[in-house]
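User: My collaborator and I are trying to settle a disagreement about how two of our proteins should look. Neither of us wants to argue from intuition anymore, so we agreed to look at predicted structures for both before our next call. Could you fold the first one, then the second, and keep them clearly separated?

Assistant: That sounds like a sensible way to settle it. I'll keep them separate. The first protein:
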Amino acid sequence: MEGADECMKYRSPLVSRYASKEMAYNFSDRKKFSTWRKLWIYLAKAEKALGLSITDAQIAEMESHAEDIDFAMAAEEERKLRHDVMAHVHTFAHCCPSAAPIIHLGATSCYVGDNTDLIMLRDGFDVLLPKLARVIDRLSNFAEKYADLPTLGFTHYQPAQLTTVGKRACLWLQDLAMDMRNLQRARDDLRFRGVKGTTGTQASFLQLFQGDHDKVEELDRMVTEMAGFKKAYLVTGQTYSRKVDVDCLSSLASLGATVHKICTDIRLLANLKEIEEPFEKEQIGSSAMPYKRNPMRAERCCSLARHLVALMADPLQTASVQWLERTLDDSANRRISLPESFLTADIILSTLQNITEGLVVYPKVIERHIRHELPFMATENIIMAMVKAGGNRQDCHEKIRVLSQEAAAVVKQEGGDNDLLARVQRDPYFAPILGQLDALLDPRTFIGRAPQQVTRFLSEEVRPLLEPYNAKMDVKIELEL
């Protein structure tokens, strides 16, 4: 009845429902505790190389048991000891009896705890960055395809001057490009805590090496290098500064804000029937309304993005209350906020990749909306054409104003179509320019430099940003709904 027992426990939907296998593994107990063991091996190897009495046999014994963790024994040890690190020291020592005396030699709990967290943060960014690159790639292809397609622009969610579908996508892309740079910088700025001892002074290691400062510094450098980091923080308390968590999670929260804006735009456009997210053949939009095609992927992104943004409060408050060299009130909070931020960002990017790979555009609907509003927007063009034909600007302005008011009344009070153009055509005053009306109302003359901006932006800012990820672009997302 193990399956039934599992149904009696809360399971985070971030893992059980949404997250990718690679991100779920990155914050798993298997990854965490096997990394602890690797860190103990790195420490022993470096201490041996620098002259401590540690044998090759002890290191070989530790290496042979790096992955076979007895989780039941560790849980039992933790129940007795009330200390997770010492529980795993004892569990490791149990299967490495000859190495038992030198496991964790000179180290404090944060040697494995904090260094593992930094490895998970680094590896988490390495999962996210290619996913973000793929979203940017798909959206840049979309922007290029629709660079010239005129569409109504909106300010205050009221019809404004025309833009293009591709130019609007570039507004989304610009924010995503900023997020790409932010995530990359946060990842590259990460350092290792290294080998610093209980309050960060390295006193225990200075004692082990009988006052030899050079060997203590070399120990720190060697372990840092073995863990795959170029640098360690030069100063720490017992922990690395919790400002590092602020730095990492702020880049993810900022990504959350970007995705929320993009997916809100998609939801608004779906209501207008101008753009839709992918919709499976057998997908049901509503249990009560069979005709509905709800933007549920975009809604999922918005829902999770709010959580991602909200998580930012945790590291900010945690960093602010770390007393002196450290307090333990960071621990429970970070067990939740760090993994959840990366898991949430991972799910959002997978979903957004799926959306951007299958966005559907309805040009005829877009064209209808333009036709509905364009006569009002074209009034200045009509006035200028009349002036060129010998008319008086003030007279023309008044004529257009009166006809516009009448057409607006038809639209707003009677629910009819915008008939301003028909009114202009019927008015003898505008006879000199009737032959120009089609040209004056060509939507392509209202989009300014939008297509050129798309081309330059994609060429100069987007494509170069994606170059390091070109080899990882072909991955498709199978979205679990």
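The second protein, kept apart from the first:
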Amino acid sequence: MIEVLAKLSRGPVFLAGEMLECVITFTNPLSASSTSASSEMLAWASAQIHCQFHTSENRVALPPSDGSKHDVQAENETVFVPNRGERGQCILSTPPKILFCDLRLDPGESKSYSYCETLPVDGPPSFRGQSVKYVYKLTIGCQRVNSPIKLLRVPFRVLVLHGLKDYQFPQDEAVAPSNPFLEEEEGLKKDSRLADLATELLMVATSRRSLHLYNISNTRGKVGTFCIFKTVYKIGEDVIGTFNFSEGDIPCLQFSVSLQTEESIQEEFQRRRGQPVSFTMHARHQESCLHTAQSSFSLPIPLSSTPGFTTNIVSLKWRLHFEFVTSGESAGTCLVRGSQSEAVTWTGVEQMEVDTFSWDLPIKVLPTNPILASYVSQFSSTNSITI
């Protein structure tokens, strides 16, 4: 028996273009029955990253796959196929890397190997939607002599920030600040610079503030105004907005604001022409606001959510969805006098005519620092298997 333990060094969330590093440890556990003849042998081990894509058959119509590209060897259990037994299609993969050949482990002995690979920048982000899913995994294959291959899969999350792909790092870094007491490999230097560049780009894009004022009105007149200071956010930020109903002609009884994503399939891949898009609500604020001059809301963008993106098959967009309930009568008739005595009590009316209308405001949601997103990730940095 051999225990295989895979640990992602920095956590389970990465930016496309970053270096993924995983330490894989093979251990022959020492038991009470172990003897000098209890050594274990592995023929080889290999690792590879792949992105698995699968769709809802009721929503997405994919073109038929090319049967001429079918790999007969994939059905052989002695051939390393990272996505064997998984649903959907493998749309992206890195070249496999051999970790070792002919490994012998004595009882209580362990060996560790480091796997490093740059995540492709032209792939989609990790996404689990109602119509499609993009799932990234690092698969480690191990085989004993004359035995089937055993697979250890390590799922992780990939965030995509547009603009990093075209950035060219300067060749001459003689004047760049560095730590003379640390010896860094060139790949790790570039990986660190990539993360710093992404953080800077995100900070610039989401720190710009300008006043956006919108008049809220229906067919009968003005209800109020809505104010928001920016429309570009990172996941993990709060969307904050304010209402001013004091200048409205129509009383607003109640409003609600929902933070939603809109998942739409490109027209050529829709199962039915003109099929509706899918909406997912991530946060909601509802408030009764009769005789309220001003109000506000704060909606958090979950760190576990997917920033907006577009591929050749699916598009994900973010929006604020507003719903307003207004009175069909004037503000004065919303209260009635409950007593004719000297002590006057005002109470709400039992029935009144209302109008409802909705409004959508598109916003843009970008990724955040992957280390921050790792704190709430559903994936574990450590995975293991016994073979």
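Some points you might bring to the call about the second protein. The chain has two helices and 23 strands. The radius of gyration is 29 Å.
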